[in-house]
Structure formats: structure tokens, C-alpha cells
Write a structure and sequence with these properties.
The chain is of the alpha/beta class and about 220 residues long. Helix content is about 40%, strand content about 20%. It has eight helices and twelve strands. The strands form three sheets. The protein has a five-stranded parallel beta sheet, with helices on both faces. It has a four-stranded antiparallel beta sheet with strand order 6-7-8-9, covered by helices on one side. A three-stranded antiparallel beta sheet has the order 10-12-11. Strand 3, helix 3 and strand 4 form a beta-alpha-beta unit. The relative contact order is 0.11.
């Protein structure tokens, strides 16, 4: 998936770019609305994330121009203007979603994933699978090599995050935000403890480990 971030604030852009790239997305960056409009018309992006207040061409004008030219790329608008009227204005301008600043990165990521799912053909995914590990999201059952695995609710959430991002590094910060939804001390070992327990259930009695530690970064679920 290829995304475009249009953001002139250097710190905000660095934060979002780093998080999205850690999550496995290819992301281009435009520092103003004019460059963003040029990139969005030249490249077939899966999603555009645009700040509302931009130099040269503001975010709402960017969306309006895209729509008037028949460009239907999904656009998620970011803005410090977060009142109901502001959100309605953004959506009526042609935005597909609107997220007020400041925001948790986990919410931004969830909105991106939801928007991309809507754009994909076919039925919504109800099963996740890597190698012989399978998760049924409807029945909340997990099996490996046909054998049922008993997981706590927290372990199920952790495994779902890892399965949805199979082959990608999932950082500890991402897991804290997505699974616990709390601001923990970044040096806490709560993630390592729960992943260790999950690994014992998923990998201990099987020949091939699926949950891997990426030293200094986080964890990855992959076959082999």
C-alpha cells in the first residue's frame, strides 16, 4: 500500500512518517498543498493524509480540486480544528475521514486500515492465517496445525495485531497503544511478559517458531 502524507509541520510529519513506515506502509511526503496536489495527480496512491492548514494550497482546496478532476483517492484530513462544524466542512469538501489533532497514532492507523478495507473488493476478512496458524475473528478461536490454542482476551488481541501485520515489525509502542490503549512507561516490560506468554502457547509445542523478536525494534510474526 502506498500513501501520501501532506504535512508542513516537521515534527508532526516525522512522527507520522516513522509510525507508518514501521507499520509497513510505503509513504511519500509533501511539505505543502501545491506539492501534495501535484503528487496526488501524478501517482496512484491508495490513500492521502492531508493537513487542513497548508502553505500555498490548503487541505480542503486540495481535496476539492482532486474531486473536481474526478480523482477518487480516499483522503483523511488532519486538523487542529476539531469542532463538529469543522469536521462537517471537511467531509463536505470531499474528505473521506477527519481526525482532529492531537491524536493517538493507534487511532490514525486504525482509521487508515478501515478506509483501505472499504476500498478493497470482496467480503470483509473474518479469518487471519499465517502458515499453519489461523484465527477466526467471528468465533474468536485460534488453531495451529488444526490444534485449538487457549488464549486470554489480551493474548488474542496481541496475536490479532501481529497477524494483521504479518511480515512487518510491530513496535512495543504500537502494541501498547493498540492493545492496552493506555500511556504506559515506555520502559515497562508488560509487552515482553505478555508476548513471552503468547509465544509459549503459539510456538512451544511446534517445530517452527512464528513469533520473532526484532532486536531494538519490536516483534514480527512470520513463517520461518
Amino acid at each position: 500500500m502506498r500513501l501520501l502524507l501532506v504535512e508542513d509541520d516537521v515534527d508532526a510529519a516525522d512522527f507520522v512518517l516513522r509510525g507508518l513506515r514501521e507499520a509497513g506502509y510505503a509513504v511519500d511526503h509533501a511539505r505543502d498543498g501545491r506539492d501534495g496536489l501535484f503528487k496526488a495527480t501524478e501517482v496512484a496512491y491508495d490513500l492521502v493524509i492531508a493537513d487542513r492548514m497548508l502553505p500555498y494550497v490548503d487541505g480542503l482546496s486540495l481535496v476539492s480540486v482532486l474531486r473536481s478532476n474526478g480523482n477518487t483517492v480516499p483522503v483523511l484530513i488532519l486538523s487542529a480544528l476539531g469542532s463538529v462544524d469543522d469536521r462537517v466542512t471537511g467531509l463536505r469538501a470531499g474528505g473521506d475521514d477527519y481526525l482532529a489533532k492531537p491524536f493517538a497514532f493507534s487511532e490514525l492507523l486504525a482509521r487508515i486500515e478501515a478506509r483501505l478495507r472499504r476500498g478493497q473488493a470482496g467480503a470483509e476478512v473474518t479469518r487471519l492465517r499465517v502458515a499453519d496458524l489461523e484465527m477466526d475473528l467471528l468465533s474468536r478461536q485460534v488453531t495451529r496445525d488444526g490444534r485449538a490454542l487457549e488464549l486470554t482476551a489480551r493474548e488474542f488481541q496481541l496475536l490479532e495485531v501481529l497477524l494483521r501485520r504479518a511480515g512487518q515489525v510491530v513496535t512495543r509502542t504500537m502494541l501498547l497503544e493498540m492493545v492496552w490503549d493506555f500511556d504506559f512507561d515506555p520502559h515497562t516490560n508488560v509487552i515482553d511478559v505478555h508476548v513471552s506468554r503468547l509465544r509459549r502457547t503459539v510456538d512451544r509445542d511446534f517445530d517452527r517458531p512464528l513469533i520473532h523478536t526484532v532486536r531494538g525494534a519490536g516483534y514480527m510474526l512470520r513463517a520461518g
